[in-house]
Design the sequence.
């Protein structure tokens, strides 16, 4: 059932956004795809409204977060989890953005709940959500100066050797 | 230093607004967080919430620890119902590793998670009573949290930060004393809960203070991504246990209570009814356990399940697995997984990305308290301070989960 719905969602997205929707995957049955920051708001709106088609209707924003991949060209992935509570289907959307200029439009125009989720993502990763009404740090102090979830900031003393992989043959 | 003070833009020199700091250490804030309120007399004109006082970098620490060593971090998130956090994390890893659990373990998990839910709801509902002046109800029902702690203690040795499970099951089986204590709890708790309801449900003062106060519509709740009893009080029957059953919840017969008005009274009623449903679930789980072969408390996955110490000392295989597991050498697939459970406050989600290393590449925790709480300041506008305090009680914000 879920596979059929996922397939239909991918077809609807493909018809609307063409090659802006890429990297479609279904890890553990959860439809995952990538898109670009110039259409992300349209994609979210399209998924939220069930208007023309009967497969979307993802009216619930479960979560917004980010992942830092320093080895990738576009090093920060902003990840959205949406949920269609009626059909019991979830979808995950990723947008890869440049880690040196991490800017993406805000989703607060679609859901008010995105406000703190985006503030948290800004605080931890430095992602700037354009158009956000109140983009300030939320968990850390204002003077912190860094965005601590980026991979370049080690958690512990880098001189410790008891946790280095090379000492364990890895 | 910018303390995120709200800027009140009214330039009227006659205005006599008072800035009131509700928190960070105020008995009515239920934890360490601050609300800077602009007050016109007793009425709140505007407010800004400041959080992060106990932020412990859960996600950052998790990136530096093997799967097993993340368990004690999860206990400290929602410490009022820590077993649910434990189980949620273990189930996420089990989903990643494709571990199928024996039914008996699933039922044991249902018992412990429902006890945790009752414990969480006891705190919330008795404190709503306390904040409306009904201290008796608080003291009366609160002793049953103590009974639940004793059950935890029997199962894992700890009371608050329980560390109760393992990837693949439990560290040990429930002993006879634990079952006896659960049975005693099931016998005594409904009587007390009924009396608690008799004291509050039709109490004139309680109804006046809660009914029609802080109403939220279903649209607003969904817009702010609310889940759990807060969302259900607005009439949306979304419960992860029913929507995406885990741990054999599909085998159980229970109802999802919903409210109609979305006010504080409805939130209170929804939580009370959920406690009744939890009692039902535990009774059913105990019945189902009788049909399962005794003594099974973990799945047969020696490469993932941490062996007992006795085994480690006497069995070479167990020693090797123990070493590999503790050192984080589990062969987990490179994948990403999202798993949600129904916590005391709503949808507890774990988003785990594994790249084949010793530790998660990224672990994100969807915290219902964090997401629910952001509506507090907007919805407090125009409210009386005393109503806002009860509203905060009804939102059941747990600081450990809020800040993570």
Sequence:
């Amino acid at each position: 059932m879920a596979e059929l719905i996922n397939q239909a969602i991918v077809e609807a997205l493909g018809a609307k956004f063409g090659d802006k929707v890429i990297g479609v995957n279904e890890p553990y049955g959860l439809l995952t795809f990538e898109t670009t920051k110039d259409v992300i708001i349209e994609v979210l709106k399209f998924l939220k409204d069930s208007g023309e088609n009967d497969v979307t209707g993802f009216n619930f924003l479960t979560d917004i977060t980010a992942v830092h991949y320093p080895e990738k060209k576009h090093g920060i992935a902003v990840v959205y989890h949406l949920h269609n509570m009626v059909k019991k289907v979830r979808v995950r959307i990723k947008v890869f953005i440049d880690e040196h200029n991490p800017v993406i439009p805000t989703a607060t125009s679609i859901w008010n709940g995105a406000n703190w989720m985006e503030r948290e993502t800004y605080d931890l990763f430095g992602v700037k959500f354009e158009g956000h009404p109140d983009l300030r740090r939320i968990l850390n102090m204002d003077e912190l100066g860094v965005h601590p979830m980026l991979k370049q900031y080690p958690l512990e003393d880098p001189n410790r050797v008891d946790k280095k992989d090379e000492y364990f043959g890895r | 230093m910018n303390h995120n003070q709200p800027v009140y833009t009214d330039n009227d020199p006659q205005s006599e607004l008072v800035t009131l700091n509700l928190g960070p250490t105020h008995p009515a804030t239920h934890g360490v967080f601050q609300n800077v309120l602009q007050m016109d007399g007793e009425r709140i004109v505007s407010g800004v919430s400041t959080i992060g006082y106990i932020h412990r970098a859960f996600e950052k620490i998790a990136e530096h620890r093997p799967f097993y060593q993340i368990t004690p971090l999860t206990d400290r998130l929602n410490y009022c119902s820590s077993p649910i956090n434990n189980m949620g994390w273990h189930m996420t890893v089990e989903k990643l590793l494709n571990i199928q659990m024996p039914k008996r373990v699933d039922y044991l998990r249902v018992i412990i998670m429902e006890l945790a839910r009752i414990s969480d709801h006891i705190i919330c509902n008795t404190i709503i009573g306390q904040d409306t002046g009904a201290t008796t109800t608080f003291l009366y029902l609160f002793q049953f949290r103590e009974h639940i702690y004793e059950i935890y203690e029997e199962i894992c040795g700890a009371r608050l930060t329980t560390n109760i499970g393992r990837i693949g099951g439990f560290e040990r089986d429930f002993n006879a004393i634990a079952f006896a204590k659960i049975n005693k709890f099931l016998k005594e708790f409904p009587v007390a809960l009924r009396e608690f309801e008799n004291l509050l449900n039709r109490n004139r003062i309680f109804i006046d203070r809660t009914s029609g106060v802080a109403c939220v519509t279903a649209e607003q709740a969904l817009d702010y991504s609310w889940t759990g009893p807060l969302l259900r009080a607005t009439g949306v029957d979304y419960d992860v246990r029913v929507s995406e059953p885990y741990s054999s919840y599909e085998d159980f017969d229970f109802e999802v209570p919903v409210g109609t008005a979305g006010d504080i009274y409805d939130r209170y009623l929804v939580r009370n009814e959920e406690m009744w449903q939890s009692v039902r679930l535990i009774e059913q789980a105990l019945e189902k356990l009788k049909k399962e072969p005794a003594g099974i408390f973990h799945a047969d996955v020696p490469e993932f399940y941490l062996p007992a110490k006795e085994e480690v000392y006497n069995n070479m295989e167990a020693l090797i697995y123990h070493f590999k597991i503790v050192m984080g050498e589990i062969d987990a697939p490179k994948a990403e997984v999202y798993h949600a459970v129904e916590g005391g406050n709503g949808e507890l989600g774990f988003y785990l990305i594994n790249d084949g290393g010793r530790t998660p590449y990224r672990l994100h925790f969807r915290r219902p308290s964090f997401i629910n709480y952001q509506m507090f300041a907007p919805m407090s506008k125009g409210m009386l301070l005393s109503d806002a305090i009860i509203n905060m009680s009804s939102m059941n914000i747990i600081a450990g989960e809020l800040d993570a």
